[in-house]
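> run fold Methyl-accepting chemotaxis protein McpC
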Amino acid sequence: MLKIQFKSLSRQMLLSIILLITIVCLGIAIISNIISKNAIIKTVNTDLPEIADQASKTIEAEINQQLKVLELFSLNPTLGDEKAPINIKMELLNKEKTRSGHLDMAIVDAAGNGINTSGDTFNSKGQIGYEKAISGTPNVSDPLISKANGKLIVIYSVPIIKNGSLVGVLQSVRSGDALSAYTSSINLGKTGKAYIISKDGTLIASENKDLVMSQSNNIKNSEKDSSLKEIADIEKEMVSGKKSAAKYKSNGVEHYIGYSPIKSAGWSLGIDVESSEVLASITTLTKSIVVVSILFIIIGAAIAYLISKSITKPINNSVSELETIANGDLTGEISDKLLSRKDEIGSMVKAINTMKESILHMLHDVEGSSSSIDQQINTIHGISQELASSSEDITVATNDVAKGNTEQAGDLVDITSIIEDFSNKLSDMIDLIKNVDTSTVDIKNMADNSSIDMDNLVISIKNVNEVFRDLIIKTKNVEENILKINTITNLINQISDQTNLLALNAAIEAARAGEAGRGFSVVADEIRKLAEQSKTSSVNISSLIEQISTDTERMANATDIVNTELSAQEENIYTAIESFKTITQAVDDITPKMHEANKSIAHLNESKEVILSKVEGASAIAEEVSASSEEIAASTADMGTSAKNIEDSLALLSDMSQKLMNNVTKFKIN
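> ok
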């Protein structure tokens, strides 16, 4: 940062005041400029729409006036009379055209067929102006180019009403240049101009008639030319029927525009003025403020010069007095005029006078104290020598104490290490005992569970034995029943043999009887067949019974073997149950002892922690004592060094005292 060094306080004050006045004037100029600009812009944004509104109302009144005149003329009964000759109607229209200054007039019937004063016929069906009028709404068309002569025209249309019914439309054609002439008459400064656009944004009135004739449309043109986007956006707001103000740029020039709708025609009137003209008064104001500011700066500089001189003159006198004191002359007197001042300069001069008197008293005191300092130096010198001798003895003693404490601290560290090793082994033993205790509980639980399972198994084996006993009994019963069935089968065989023999005898007797015994022979033959079949079945049954008997005998033998094995297994299970009971009893005896051992180990571990804590505390204390001894030794050594330094300082102080007296003699105090 650049710093300006001033050799004169008056210059510094002068430039500071001028700079302050300049900053204030510059600030006032900037603030005034901003406030004025904002006020003007606010006024423009308020006044331009109002001016545009007044102009639009004037045009709207003119349009309504023309429509009213045309409506009054349409009340002529001849115009609404369908039977009236057309030439009579044309004569009326020509007179009205001449009287009112119309370019042309026409009458159109309800079917849209029309005729004008020039004798031309046409059909207006579908035309907006005609359709509105035939619906009962008087209206004016947008300015359009006449096909007959290429001039700009405006068509006014009103309904012809007869007996409350719409029977036709009366139209008048007027020059469209009247709108441009009116907008050209609206002057706002040098650059202000007015123009009118239709409901689709087409320019219909302006001082630039070429643009009107070419039917220029910024809204449509902005689609190809992006530079027209700002004014196109504003004109979109205009055709929407709004009353407002806006700002835009065209060809690098800033413009303000106020606009208001012409409601009866659906048009919008805008008044455009360049920003430079609107803000021209600000430039004049700025120039005036600059001139006034320069004048204030000159006046302020003159006043600042006088003020700086009145301030710096007594300061310069004070500086001269200080320079005299700085040279060692304390005999001068400060003027009573300066001492009597009541401002800051007077306070400064009084402070200088007080300082001079204080220096005089101090110098007198220094002279008196210098001799006393020499005497004290000699006394301190003797004390410092005794202090140095004592510090050497203390150093030797503290070194011996520190050595003993260091050895003791080392022994305590070894004890701590041994106790920590014992602690680790004790912790391992605690973990092992906890594991054994846990395993003992698990063994007891498993033994209890196994004993229960064995009891259940004994019950199951008893049930199986009972089932096998029933099975053996039933097997023997089956064997006995099979023997009975075998006896019955033998009986059936005998009966079959007898039946077969009887059937044979019956057949022989039937043969002897001849025809009379033929039926009996057939019966005897069938009985013989049944007997043979019974014998065959009996043989098969005997064979099956023999096999079943063999299997039953084997099954009985097997059940005897299984019964024997089950009895032996039952005895083994009883033996296992007794063993499990013995194990459970042993585990029950061990468990309380393990709990007691666990508690004893826990108490031992707590005692170990206390011992370890005590040893660590003793070790720490020993280390602290050793460190303190070393610090005492170091401090004693430092004390010896300090005593030596005191000797040196005393010599230096004696030398300085001598030099001080030499300097005091340089001051002129008498």
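The mean pLDDT is 77.
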